[in-house]
Amino acid sequence: MNGPHNHNLVELDLNCEAGMLSAIPNKVGPRLETPMGGVIDVSRPPGSLTFHTNAEFATVILAPSPNMEAAFASDRLQTFDAAVGMLVVNPSNVDRTLKWSTTKRNAAIAFGASAYSDLASSELEGANWELRPPKFGHIDLRALRLAKAMASEVSASTSNPLYLDALLTVFGIHLLRHYSNAKLHLKATASRRLSGQTSKRTVEYMNENLSENLSINDLARISRMSPSHFIRAFTLTFGMPPHQYLVNLRLKMAEKLLIKTNLSISDIAFQTGFSSQSHLTNTMKRFKHITPGKIRTTN
Protein backbone atom coordinates (compact mmCIF):
# COMPACT_ATOMS: atom_id res chain seq x y z
CA MET A 1 0.00 0.00 0.00
CA ASN A 2 1.38 3.40 -0.93
CA GLY A 3 1.73 6.30 1.50
CA PRO A 4 2.15 6.47 5.29
CA HIS A 5 -0.51 5.31 7.67
CA ASN A 6 -1.06 5.12 11.39
CA HIS A 7 -1.73 1.69 12.87
CA ASN A 8 -4.04 1.14 15.82
CA LEU A 9 -4.83 -1.98 17.82
CA VAL A 10 -8.42 -1.63 19.01
CA GLU A 11 -10.21 -3.91 21.45
CA LEU A 12 -13.87 -2.95 21.26
CA ASP A 13 -16.32 -3.79 24.01
CA LEU A 14 -19.46 -3.00 22.05
CA ASN A 15 -21.81 -4.09 24.80
CA CYS A 16 -20.40 -2.04 27.67
CA GLU A 17 -22.82 -0.18 29.94
CA ALA A 18 -21.61 3.25 28.76
CA GLY A 19 -22.98 2.54 25.29
CA MET A 20 -22.49 -0.04 22.59
CA LEU A 21 -20.39 2.26 20.40
CA SER A 22 -18.67 4.27 23.13
CA ALA A 23 -15.31 2.53 22.53
CA ILE A 24 -15.16 3.97 19.00
CA PRO A 25 -13.87 7.58 18.90
CA ASN A 26 -16.48 10.24 18.14
CA LYS A 27 -14.25 11.74 15.45
CA VAL A 28 -14.84 8.65 13.29
CA GLY A 29 -18.35 9.86 12.47
CA PRO A 30 -21.92 10.46 13.71
CA ARG A 31 -23.65 7.50 15.33
CA LEU A 32 -26.94 6.43 16.82
CA GLU A 33 -27.88 3.47 19.02
CA THR A 34 -31.18 1.66 19.44
CA PRO A 35 -32.22 -1.37 21.49
CA MET A 36 -31.34 -3.54 18.45
CA GLY A 37 -27.85 -2.16 17.86
CA GLY A 38 -25.92 0.85 16.63
CA VAL A 39 -24.68 2.48 13.42
CA ILE A 40 -21.80 4.86 12.67
CA ASP A 41 -21.49 6.83 9.43
CA VAL A 42 -17.70 6.43 9.17
CA SER A 43 -15.20 8.70 7.44
CA ARG A 44 -11.53 8.00 8.16
CA PRO A 45 -8.28 9.29 6.62
CA PRO A 46 -5.67 6.81 5.28
CA GLY A 47 -4.50 4.43 7.99
CA SER A 48 -4.67 0.92 9.37
CA LEU A 49 -6.44 -0.88 12.15
CA THR A 50 -6.47 -4.21 13.95
CA PHE A 51 -9.98 -4.68 15.20
CA HIS A 52 -11.35 -7.05 17.88
CA THR A 53 -14.92 -6.88 19.10
CA ASN A 54 -17.11 -8.89 21.46
CA ALA A 55 -20.20 -8.24 19.30
CA GLU A 56 -21.38 -9.19 15.84
CA PHE A 57 -20.30 -6.39 13.52
CA ALA A 58 -20.70 -5.56 9.83
CA THR A 59 -19.22 -2.96 7.49
CA VAL A 60 -20.66 -1.76 4.18
CA ILE A 61 -18.42 0.34 1.93
CA LEU A 62 -20.08 3.62 0.84
CA ALA A 63 -17.29 5.06 -1.35
CA PRO A 64 -14.59 3.30 -3.43
CA SER A 65 -11.37 2.47 -1.58
CA PRO A 66 -8.69 1.13 -3.97
CA ASN A 67 -5.81 -1.08 -2.83
CA MET A 68 -7.35 -1.95 0.51
CA GLU A 69 -5.69 -4.75 2.48
CA ALA A 70 -7.59 -6.95 4.92
CA ALA A 71 -7.34 -10.19 6.86
CA PHE A 72 -9.31 -12.16 9.43
CA ALA A 73 -7.52 -13.63 12.46
CA SER A 74 -4.05 -14.88 11.45
CA ASP A 75 -4.80 -15.12 7.73
CA ARG A 76 -2.55 -13.37 5.23
CA LEU A 77 -3.46 -9.85 4.18
CA GLN A 78 -5.39 -9.78 0.91
CA THR A 79 -5.22 -6.77 -1.40
CA PHE A 80 -8.29 -5.72 -3.37
CA ASP A 81 -10.25 -2.71 -4.56
CA ALA A 82 -13.11 -2.13 -2.12
CA ALA A 83 -16.05 -1.16 -4.29
CA VAL A 84 -19.24 0.56 -3.19
CA GLY A 85 -21.53 -2.09 -1.70
CA MET A 86 -18.78 -4.37 -0.44
CA LEU A 87 -19.98 -6.14 2.69
CA VAL A 88 -17.67 -7.33 5.45
CA VAL A 89 -19.23 -9.48 8.19
CA ASN A 90 -17.16 -9.59 11.38
CA PRO A 91 -18.24 -12.29 13.85
CA SER A 92 -17.62 -11.61 17.54
CA ASN A 93 -14.19 -12.34 19.02
CA VAL A 94 -12.47 -12.61 15.63
CA ASP A 95 -9.61 -10.21 14.86
CA ARG A 96 -9.72 -8.24 11.65
CA THR A 97 -6.85 -6.21 10.19
CA LEU A 98 -7.44 -3.39 7.71
CA LYS A 99 -5.15 -1.03 5.78
CA TRP A 100 -6.39 1.67 3.44
CA SER A 101 -4.61 4.37 1.41
CA THR A 102 -7.50 6.78 0.73
CA THR A 103 -10.31 8.23 2.85
CA LYS A 104 -12.50 5.33 3.93
CA ARG A 105 -16.27 5.85 3.89
CA ASN A 106 -18.47 3.11 5.27
CA ALA A 107 -21.36 2.28 7.52
CA ALA A 108 -20.26 0.41 10.66
CA ILE A 109 -23.12 -1.67 12.05
CA ALA A 110 -23.09 -3.42 15.44
CA PHE A 111 -25.74 -5.57 17.09
CA GLY A 112 -26.62 -6.07 20.73
CA ALA A 113 -25.52 -9.16 22.63
CA SER A 114 -28.76 -11.09 22.12
CA ALA A 115 -30.02 -9.40 18.94
CA TYR A 116 -29.16 -12.18 16.48
CA SER A 117 -30.44 -14.94 18.76
CA ASP A 118 -33.70 -13.07 19.30
CA LEU A 119 -34.11 -12.49 15.57
CA ALA A 120 -33.32 -16.10 14.73
CA SER A 121 -35.83 -17.47 17.23
CA SER A 122 -38.60 -15.04 16.23
CA GLU A 123 -38.11 -14.91 12.46
CA LEU A 124 -36.69 -18.28 11.49
CA GLU A 125 -37.22 -21.95 12.18
CA GLY A 126 -34.23 -22.89 14.28
CA ALA A 127 -32.16 -20.54 16.44
CA ASN A 128 -28.75 -22.20 16.07
CA TRP A 129 -26.59 -19.97 13.92
CA GLU A 130 -23.07 -18.77 13.34
CA LEU A 131 -22.19 -15.91 11.02
CA ARG A 132 -19.87 -16.81 8.15
CA PRO A 133 -18.12 -13.88 6.49
CA PRO A 134 -18.20 -13.71 2.68
CA LYS A 135 -14.91 -13.32 0.80
CA PHE A 136 -13.31 -9.88 0.84
CA GLY A 137 -14.61 -7.91 -2.11
CA HIS A 138 -18.11 -9.43 -1.93
CA ILE A 139 -20.82 -6.99 -3.11
CA ASP A 140 -24.28 -7.04 -1.55
CA LEU A 141 -26.66 -4.48 -3.08
CA ARG A 142 -29.45 -5.17 -0.56
CA ALA A 143 -27.03 -4.51 2.30
CA LEU A 144 -25.88 -1.35 0.49
CA ARG A 145 -29.41 0.05 0.24
CA LEU A 146 -30.01 -0.55 3.94
CA ALA A 147 -26.59 0.82 4.91
CA LYS A 148 -27.14 4.02 2.91
CA ALA A 149 -30.48 4.54 4.63
CA MET A 150 -28.93 3.94 8.07
CA ALA A 151 -25.95 6.24 7.42
CA SER A 152 -28.29 8.96 6.22
CA GLU A 153 -30.48 8.57 9.30
CA VAL A 154 -27.68 8.84 11.86
CA SER A 155 -26.39 11.98 10.13
CA ALA A 156 -29.79 13.69 9.89
CA SER A 157 -30.87 16.54 12.16
CA THR A 158 -34.27 14.85 12.48
CA SER A 159 -33.03 11.31 13.12
CA ASN A 160 -35.66 8.79 14.20
CA PRO A 161 -34.39 5.96 16.47
CA LEU A 162 -37.43 3.77 15.76
CA TYR A 163 -36.77 4.00 12.01
CA LEU A 164 -33.13 3.07 12.57
CA ASP A 165 -34.25 0.19 14.80
CA ALA A 166 -36.46 -1.09 11.96
CA LEU A 167 -33.59 -0.82 9.46
CA LEU A 168 -31.27 -2.69 11.84
CA THR A 169 -33.92 -5.39 12.28
CA VAL A 170 -34.23 -5.89 8.51
CA PHE A 171 -30.43 -5.79 8.08
CA GLY A 172 -29.91 -8.38 10.83
CA ILE A 173 -32.45 -10.74 9.28
CA HIS A 174 -30.74 -10.31 5.91
CA LEU A 175 -27.38 -11.33 7.41
CA LEU A 176 -28.90 -14.36 9.14
CA ARG A 177 -30.58 -15.54 5.96
CA HIS A 178 -27.57 -15.14 3.69
CA TYR A 179 -24.44 -15.29 5.87
CA SER A 180 -25.25 -17.84 8.55
CA ASN A 181 -24.19 -21.48 8.61
CA ALA A 182 -27.58 -22.59 9.90
CA LYS A 183 -30.14 -24.00 7.51
CA LEU A 184 -32.92 -21.64 8.39
CA HIS A 185 -36.32 -21.40 6.78
CA LEU A 186 -38.75 -18.54 6.96
CA LYS A 187 -41.74 -19.22 9.15
CA ALA A 188 -44.83 -19.34 7.00
CA THR A 189 -46.78 -16.25 7.97
CA ALA A 190 -48.91 -14.54 5.36
CA SER A 191 -48.81 -10.76 5.10
CA ARG A 192 -51.87 -9.42 6.86
CA ARG A 193 -53.18 -6.35 8.62
CA LEU A 194 -53.23 -5.99 12.38
CA SER A 195 -56.54 -6.90 13.97
CA GLY A 196 -58.67 -4.10 15.37
CA GLN A 197 -57.81 -5.08 18.93
CA THR A 198 -54.08 -5.32 18.20
CA SER A 199 -54.12 -1.98 16.36
CA LYS A 200 -55.77 -0.31 19.33
CA ARG A 201 -53.38 -1.90 21.82
CA THR A 202 -50.34 -0.89 19.78
CA VAL A 203 -51.42 2.74 19.35
CA GLU A 204 -52.32 2.99 23.02
CA TYR A 205 -48.85 1.74 23.93
CA MET A 206 -47.25 4.31 21.63
CA ASN A 207 -49.30 7.13 23.16
CA GLU A 208 -48.52 6.01 26.70
CA ASN A 209 -44.78 5.86 25.96
CA LEU A 210 -44.19 8.86 23.70
CA SER A 211 -41.20 10.00 25.73
CA GLU A 212 -39.53 6.57 25.67
CA ASN A 213 -37.03 5.18 23.18
CA LEU A 214 -39.39 2.61 21.67
CA SER A 215 -38.08 -0.33 19.69
CA ILE A 216 -39.54 -2.55 16.99
CA ASN A 217 -39.21 -5.49 19.40
CA ASP A 218 -41.36 -3.66 21.98
CA LEU A 219 -44.12 -3.09 19.48
CA ALA A 220 -43.82 -6.54 17.91
CA ARG A 221 -44.28 -8.20 21.31
CA ILE A 222 -47.51 -6.28 21.84
CA SER A 223 -48.79 -7.49 18.48
CA ARG A 224 -47.59 -11.05 19.18
CA MET A 225 -45.79 -11.06 15.82
CA SER A 226 -42.19 -11.33 14.73
CA PRO A 227 -40.45 -7.96 14.14
CA SER A 228 -40.41 -8.15 10.34
CA HIS A 229 -44.02 -9.35 10.10
CA PHE A 230 -45.07 -6.59 12.50
CA ILE A 231 -43.45 -3.90 10.33
CA ARG A 232 -45.28 -5.18 7.25
CA ALA A 233 -48.63 -5.63 9.02
CA PHE A 234 -48.48 -2.21 10.69
CA THR A 235 -47.69 -0.52 7.37
CA LEU A 236 -50.57 -2.34 5.66
CA THR A 237 -52.93 -1.33 8.48
CA PHE A 238 -52.05 2.34 8.85
CA GLY A 239 -50.65 3.19 5.43
CA MET A 240 -47.29 4.18 6.88
CA PRO A 241 -44.47 2.43 8.77
CA PRO A 242 -44.34 2.47 12.59
CA HIS A 243 -41.63 5.12 12.84
CA GLN A 244 -43.61 7.62 10.77
CA TYR A 245 -46.81 6.96 12.71
CA LEU A 246 -44.93 7.56 15.96
CA VAL A 247 -43.53 10.86 14.67
CA ASN A 248 -47.08 11.97 13.83
CA LEU A 249 -48.28 11.07 17.34
CA ARG A 250 -45.40 12.94 18.94
CA LEU A 251 -45.94 16.05 16.82
CA LYS A 252 -49.67 16.00 17.55
CA MET A 253 -49.03 15.82 21.30
CA ALA A 254 -46.32 18.50 21.11
CA GLU A 255 -48.73 20.82 19.30
CA LYS A 256 -51.39 20.19 21.95
CA LEU A 257 -48.97 21.00 24.79
CA LEU A 258 -47.73 24.12 23.02
CA ILE A 259 -51.28 25.46 22.77
CA LYS A 260 -52.73 24.34 26.11
CA THR A 261 -49.81 24.62 28.55
CA ASN A 262 -47.08 27.04 29.57
CA LEU A 263 -44.38 24.37 29.53
CA SER A 264 -41.13 25.42 27.88
CA ILE A 265 -40.52 24.17 24.36
CA SER A 266 -37.53 22.22 25.70
CA ASP A 267 -39.70 20.42 28.29
CA ILE A 268 -42.33 19.66 25.66
CA ALA A 269 -39.64 18.20 23.40
CA PHE A 270 -38.46 15.77 26.07
CA GLN A 271 -42.02 14.84 27.11
CA THR A 272 -42.89 13.91 23.53
CA GLY A 273 -39.81 11.83 22.75
CA PHE A 274 -37.53 14.32 21.00
CA SER A 275 -33.90 14.48 22.04
CA SER A 276 -33.80 18.28 22.26
CA GLN A 277 -35.69 21.47 21.46
CA SER A 278 -33.84 21.73 18.15
CA HIS A 279 -34.82 18.13 17.30
CA LEU A 280 -38.49 18.99 17.85
CA THR A 281 -38.14 22.23 15.89
CA ASN A 282 -36.41 20.58 12.93
CA THR A 283 -38.91 17.70 12.84
CA MET A 284 -41.90 20.03 13.05
CA LYS A 285 -40.50 22.25 10.28
CA ARG A 286 -39.90 19.18 8.11
CA PHE A 287 -43.31 17.57 8.50
CA LYS A 288 -45.64 20.43 9.52
CA HIS A 289 -43.86 23.38 7.86
CA ILE A 290 -44.13 25.41 11.07
CA THR A 291 -42.02 25.93 14.19
CA PRO A 292 -43.09 25.34 17.82
CA GLY A 293 -42.62 29.07 18.55
CA LYS A 294 -44.94 30.00 15.69
CA ILE A 295 -47.63 27.61 16.94
CA ARG A 296 -47.43 29.11 20.42
CA THR A 297 -47.59 32.73 19.29
CA THR A 298 -50.52 32.22 16.90
CA ASN A 299 -52.78 30.34 19.33
UniProtKB/TrEMBL annotation:
Pfam family name, one: HTH_18
Keyword Iron: no
SMART domains documented for this protein: HTH_ARAC
Nuclease in keyword set: no
HTH araC/xylS-type domain span: 200-298
Record's keyword terms, sorted: DNA-binding, Transcription, Transcription regulation
Gene3D superfamilies assigned: Homeodomain-like
Any one GO MF annotation of this record: DNA-binding transcription factor activity
This protein's name: AraC family transcriptional regulator
Organism: Phyllobacterium bourgognense
